[in-house]
Automatic annotation (TrEMBL):
GO terms for cellular component: membrane. Belongs to the plant ureide permease (TC 2.A.7.19) family. The chain crosses the membrane at residues 6-30, 42-61, 81-98, 105-130, 142-161, 234-256, 276-301, 322-341, 347-367, 379-398. It comes from the Eukaryota. It holds the Pfam family Ureide_permease. Keywords: ATP-binding, Membrane, Nucleotide-binding, Transmembrane, Transmembrane helix, Transport. GO terms for molecular function: allantoin:proton symporter activity; ATP binding; uracil:monoatomic cation symporter activity. It is a multi-pass membrane protein. This is Ureide permease 1-like. It comes from Acacia crassicarpa (northern wattle).
Length: 404
């Protein structure tokens, strides 16, 4: 099998992982804003997410000759390594629950803030656990100031959301009540007033005859089209889901670390440690199973007042299916690259890929018009949050060690 062994190779893996993991949430958010049920989207995503792990296992995991110290993927499937397999599967379970939670949190809180808060919680808890599990191969005097920066980013992320919510309420209050009701109840009203057709709402480039991103009319029309209705809902619902997802995310990397390095000595003597690729296969398989069970349940017993669906309706829903498949591949390869880099340079340093909100915020602003026409206070908080995030990532990267 192929192993990343140099610090430079590990950093390349982390940077690619950062790009992939920061992009797939934007694709999922795009589909929700266009009205596709999150249950349908997540079922599609789960299929290609598992496919990515299978591709990685049968390529990187099978390259070269197999040995007792470095067994290939297929050889490890028959070994008595179930304690490590269970750790890998536990990591997949918490990741699947966290990813499912963020699908609903994105609608309430927005792509940018959700990614900042969940990633920051992941670093604060997960990186600390990984530091001790990795036998302190990362430089503590550099690592933990970076963790502190992430913690500050959590507080700033919450402040950004609160300020942006107040801005949106102020925008909506500028519309007369009868105009608000008319827009909410009739798409033809908006078409006549702005020239925006139902499928054009994401493609707002500032034309005079279209509803501009950040305006009250844009917010109301978006509410009509999206699958999860959020106007008038308490922001505490979204933040509660977001913090729950962050706790789930903080546990999957330490569990994977235990699966590949067996720090608790659960394997029998003479049994080789799980390779990254074998662990990632089991990790993704459990992630897939949990996702299928929960989302099929949500088809028939939906949450947050979503409409009921069925397996037949899901199988016939091809609107946006290709984008959902792409999201699964991006997330799958992103997670795989993160683990490949973490095995070489330490999983605590690999948590630098939690800089993914930098990518997600870019997509949130470019694709969805987040923070358009917001107040000066919101912009100051947003810039402060991103600055703290960049500083945290730089410090975390600098703490990279080298696993013996």
């Amino acid at each position: 099998m192929y192993l990343v062994e140099s610090k430079g190779g590990a950093i390349v893996c982390m940077l690619l992982s950062l790009l992939f993991l920061g992009t797939w949430p934007a694709v999922m958010t795009l589909l929700e804003r266009r009205g596709r049920l999150p249950q349908h989207t997540y079922l599609d995503y789960s299929i290609t997410n598992l496919l990515a792990a299978v591709i990685i296992a049968f390529t990187f995991g099978q390259i070269g000759h197999s040995s007792h110290e470095k067994p290939n993927f297929l050889d490890q499937l028959t070994q008595d390594n179930w304690p490590s397999v269970l750790f890998a599967m536990a990591g997949g379970i918490v990741l699947s629950i966290g990813n499912l939670s963020t699908q609903y949190a994105w609608a309430f809180v927005g792509l940018s803030v959700v990614e900042v808060i969940t990633s920051s919680i992941t670093v604060v808890i997960g990186t600390t656990l990984n530091y001790f599990l990795d036998d302190k191969i990362n430089k503590a005097e550099i690592l933990f100031p970076g963790v502190a920066c992430f913690l500050i980013a959590v507080c700033l992320g919450s402040a950004v959301h609160s300020s942006n919510t107040a801005d949106n309420k102020a925008k909506l209050n500028t519309l007369p009540t009868d105009q608000k009701d008319g827009v909410m109840n009739s798409s033809s009203t908006l078409v006549v007033a702005t020239g925006v057709r139902e499928n054009d709402i994401e493609r707002v480039n500032g034309s005079a005859n279209k509803a501009k991103a950040g305006t009250a009319v844009f917010l109301i029309e978006l509410e009509k089209r999206r699958s999860i209705k959020v106007l008038g809902k308490s922001m505490m619902v979204g933040l509660g889901i977001t913090f729950f997802a962050g706790v789930c995310f903080s546990l999957f990397s330490p569990a994977f670390n235990l699966a590949t390095n067996d720090q608790w000595h659960t394997l029998k003597k003479g049994v080789s440690h799980l390779s990254v690729y074998t662990a990632f296969f089991y990790f993704s398989a459990s992630c897939f199973v949990i996702a299928i069970i929960l989302n099929i349940t949500f088809l028939y017993f939906p949450v947050l007042n979503l409409p009921k669906s069925s397996l037949k309706a899901y199988l016939g829903d091809w609107n946006g299916r290709g984008w959902a498949f792409l999201a699964g591949l991006l997330c799958g390869f992103g997670n795989g690259l993160q683990f490949m880099g973490g095995q070489a340079a330490g999983y605590a340093a690999a948590d630098a890929v939690q800089a993914l909100p930098l990518v997600s915020t870019f997509w949130g602003v470019v694709l969805f018009g987040e923070y358009r026409k917001s107040s000066r206070r919101t912009y100051i908080l947003l810039v402060s949050m991103l600055f703290m995030f960049v500083a945290a990532v730089a410090v975390l990267m600098a703490s990279s060690g080298h696993r013996k």
